[in-house]
Amino acid sequence: MIGIIVVAAGSGARLGAGQPKAFVELRGVPILERALANVFGSIEPAQVVVVAPASHLAAARSISARAAGAASGSVSVVVGGATRQDSVANGLAALDDSVEVVLVHDAARALTPSALFDRVTRAVVASGTGIIPSLPVADTIKRVAGTAVLETVDRSALVHVQTPQGFPRAALAAAYAQASQEFTDDAALFSSAGHTVQVVEGEARAFKITTPWDLARAENVLGITSSIRTGVGIDVHAYDAAQPLWLGGLYWPDEVGLAGHSDGDALCHAICDALLSAAGLGDIGGRFGTDDPRFAGAHGDVFLGETVALVSGAGWTVGNVAVQLIAKHPRLGARRTELESHLTSLVGAPVSVSATTSDGLGFTGRAEGVAVIATALVQRTA
Ligand code: CTP
Ligand code: MG
Description:
Strand 14 and strand 15 (250-252) form a beta hairpin. The chain has helices at 31-40, 57-68, 84-93, 114-127, 169-178, 186-192, 212-224, 266-278, 284-287, 300-313, 336-347, 362-365, and strands spanning 2-7, 25-26, 29-30, 46-52, 75-79, 101-106, 130-136, 141-145, 148-153, 159-161, 165-168, 197-201, 228-240, 245-247, 250-252, 257-258, 316-326, 351-356, 369-380. By secondary structure, it is an alpha/beta fold. The model has no long low-confidence stretch (mean pLDDT 94). It folds into two domains: 2-222, Spore Coat Polysaccharide Biosynthesis Protein SpsA, Chain A; 228-380, CATH 3.30.1330.50. The protein has a five-stranded mixed beta sheet, with helices on both faces. The radius of gyration is 24 Å and the shape is elongated. It binds cytidine-5'-triphosphate and magnesium ion (MG). Cytidine-5'-triphosphate binds next to helix 3. Cytidine-5'-triphosphate (CTP) binds at residues 7-15, 21-22, 51, 80-84, 87, 106-108, 208, 210.
């Protein structure tokens, strides 16, 4: 199990916004909520612990529940301490026993892409060491004494580092328990206890919002990121006369069924792929492994429900979905309206359904199976 500690208990003195930094709005959404949307967009299910100022525990709870969506059972809020290190320690104390890998993340890095959480997690699991994201230093670096320049430092051996920083949980907890001084990041504390730390590639978008200038930069980044995206999904299943037919989340009596690891509901699967594609969350194969017992034999509406939760957790609202069946049978005609309203309620946005044949050509023309094409439109939430 992965644990992600999101520290949000600082006062934000340098931002000077008159309230703790994590609760300052960034284009209408609190910094903490933006950070958590990206946390919940990562692939591995995780226990998320938000560390908040004592004055803002209730606000942190409602923001966390909103960002977690369907995963709200896996998020908790604890109070922070006087320093960042104290806040991380409080977060560590709230982790379930089952957590083996822990990521520590600054809420102030609100735009950190979900993929960075996955990259750090994978590297900790693979290496068993501490892992921190880093980027090369772009500027020339000088060593100075007052106003006097002493030397140019070789920047090829320097990087600047970000969060999330990931660690084997037991070793980090032990290092925290024995730490007797303040460190500037978790990796420094971890290596002071004799452990190895390695870097992975960081992300420009993981920059920390510290000053009003950084907040303006984050607003600009959001402004130039298109707030509307489309996605596409295709699914194909062969007919299997031994199976009942499930299509679009509905049961179709007296129709030839479809083969597949789950119920073969190509309509729901294509919609899932289109939604995941639009939100930049990969595809159904990557999200719902065929070895995951939760999805063996699962009906299409289970995948659709999980997918919609993932998409909204990553900060997207579904605009609409269009889906087309290419098949000799079943004939959708009589149940098209029923299908559309069922899928619309599952997705929470209008779903239009159409059907065609392929004029006798290809596998659909020979009635060997069905193909489905779906597109989805998603919009950034707020
Ligand atoms: N943090 C924390 N508890 C503290 C101090 C900091 O949880 N006692 C968190 C902040 O909320 C932030 C992260 O650590 O998400 C990085 O710290 P920083 O950017 O320094 O935030 P602040 O301490 O809030 O800002 P400032 O130093 O300007 O007051
Ligand atoms: Mg600080």
